[in-house]
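Exercise 3.2. Students should predict the tertiary structure of the chain below and write it as structure tokens, then compare their answer with the key that follows.

Predict this chain's 3D structure.
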Amino acid sequence: NVSAAAVTGPATIVNSGSTNTWGFTIAVAAGGGATLTMQQVKKSFHLAATTSKKFFADLAAALNATNAPVGGCMKSASFGSATRIAWQGWTSPDLECPAPNAQIAALIADVHAIRLAAGIGGPTLHNRAVQSEPTASP
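Answer key:
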């Protein structure tokens, strides 16, 4: 069992991207320091202490859950991507799928907050602040 007080090593959030969107990686240290890597660009940023503490507490709760969810969900071939968190040798299920339990739902909310702090995000995990297709003119 891992407690949030015994946090060691960074957690890594990885989004695979898709045909139409860029993937990204966010490394989050226990102290709140974080690095976003998207395409060839790296950007450092800092999370609020409450966000960082909640994220690692929720990670510890998910890692310790006995009903570790697996599996996935149906996605578009062009727009579907996967978002997972790796920490302490554990990898989360795909956070782009509906949450199978409260621990994963908490992590989805945490990743949303971390993405917003990184400058990428939107109202749901599915939104991307990247390329958009032009609209047709009447």
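Discussion points: The longest helix spans residues 102-118. The two ends are 60 Å apart (CA to CA).
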